[in-house]
Amino acid sequence: QVQLVESGGGLVQAGGSLRLSCAASGRTFRRYAMGWFRRAPGKEREFVAAINWSASNTYYANSVNGRFTISRDNAKNTVFLQMNSLKPEDTAVYYCAADSSDGLPLTGDYWGQGTQVTVSS
Questions:
Q1: Neighbours of 75 (CB within 10 A)
Q2: Whole-angstrom Cα distance, residue 93 to residue 117?
Q3: What are the residues facing 86 on neighbouring strands?
Q4: Between the CA of residue 25 and those of 34, 83, 112, what are the distances in Å?
Q5: CA nearest 106: which of 29, 24, 49?
Q6: In this predicted structure, what is the pLDDT of residue 82?
Q7: ∠ at Cα 80 (75, 86), nearest 5°?
Q8: Residue 9 pLDDT more than 90?
Q9: d(CA 85, CA 66)
Q10: β-strand pairing of 58-60 with 46-51
């Protein structure tokens, strides 16, 4: 079993930045893709970003492309989401996801419990 724990959420003004972290523990696989989803109030959960093991491939939702950057530290089994130029529309609960293999797109075999990001205007 793999456990994912997110951190780094909070309240920030529009135009500000936050960095989310997600640490994986438990029975992890040798190589696996990771990424982020989010659920805004009154909306369905949507894909945000994903990254493969070697970080050679990254994918972003159009709504965050150019503002968010996903990265990972495999030695620590951790994935990050650097969020810059935040907008009120980015307000959501952000969920970390991990796969049991390295292929993309991300399928989300494991999920964290989420961290709240609130962006005020």
A1: 6
A2: 6
A3: none
A4: 13, 24, 11
A5: 49
A6: 98
A7: 170
A8: yes
A9: 9
A10: antiparallel
In the 3-class helix/strand/coil scheme, how is the chain assigned residue by residue?
A: CEEEEEECCEEEECCCCEEEEEEEEECCCCCCCEEEEEECCCCCCEEEEEECCCCCCEEECCCCECCEEEEEEHHHCEEEEEECCCCHHHCEEEEEEECCCCCCCCCCCEECCCEEEEEEC
Site of tokens 């724990």: 5
To which residue do tokens 């920030």 refer? Answer: 12
Residues 119 and 114: their CA atoms lie apart, in Å, by 16
Which residue, 61, 80, 62, is CA-closest to 70? Answer: 80
87 Cβ contact list (under 8 Å, min separation 6):
14, 119
pLDDT of residue 50: 97
What phi, psi does 64 have (nearest 5°)?
-120, -10
pLDDT tens digit sequence for 89-109: 999 999 999 999 998 889 999
